[in-house]
Amino acid sequence: MIRTSSIILSFFLALTFHNVFAQINLNEWVLENSTGIADADGDHSDWVELYNSSSTAVDLNGYGLSDAPAEPYKWVFPSLTMQPGEFLLVFCSDKNQFIPELHTNFKLSDEDVLVLTDPLGNTVQSIELEELPYNVSQGGVIDGSTELKQFYIPTPNDSILTMFRTAKLLSHQPGFAWRSISTICYCGLTTQIQSYHR
């Protein structure tokens, strides 16, 4: 009976730890940053944004971030707590520093596989990067989602929903039309949304 209880307790603890670790997401990233957010040195480096989609705080101490699956702990996070719903920006600049900002010891390219690993060695998320235009990001269609989209308006350290609240660009000016026209609404997504009006 004691042995059975120990097994059940061990399973519960393992499941609990896995669930806590699994709440950190690779939320958004940029491979070619030429005019976007700059780091403390004024450089426009590649970057990755993490998101805590859980309802509990998570200590990132021991998490690994890498551009190669064979080296999951190529760069390791220091002791740093992410609160529920919090975003964290990491510059992928090859500067390898923790103060005043987080900088990995590698840069990103479209040939890389971005890997986030928890302290127990579990792969939290693994993403094959693809070629992106300059200053265009890719990430979850909503914060924490694994369904990926490209965004004309990156939102480092902020919710992707911010882009939808601020970006309202129309291909035609408001007014009356005497013939059928195609109107395109650019809402930050690289996918164009078309509607037809008469």
Describe this structure in words.
There is one protein chain. The chain has 198 residues and is of the alpha+beta class. The chain has a single domain (2-144), classed as Immunoglobulin-like. The protein contains two helices and 14 strands. The protein has helices spanning 2-21, 161-166, and strands spanning 24-30, 46-52, 58-59, 64-66, 75-76, 81-82, 87-92, 113-117, 123-128, 137-140, 148-151, 169-170, 181-186, 193-197. It has a five-stranded antiparallel sheet, with no helix packed on it. The longest helix is centred in the first third of the chain and has 20 residues, at 2-21. The radius of gyration is 20 Å and the shape is globular. The N and C termini lie far apart (75 Å).
Total number of helical segments? Answer: 2
Rounded radius of gyration (Å): 20 Å
SSE sequence, one letter per element: HEEEEEEEEEEEHEEE
CATH topology grouping: Immunoglobulin-like
Helix content: 10-25%
Distance N to C terminus? 75 Å
In the CATH hierarchy, the architecture is: Sandwich
> Strand content of the residues, in percent?
25-35%
Q: Which homologous superfamily in CATH is the superfamily?
A: Lamin Tail domain
Based on Cα principal axes, name the global outline. Answer: globular
| Helix/sheet category | alpha+beta
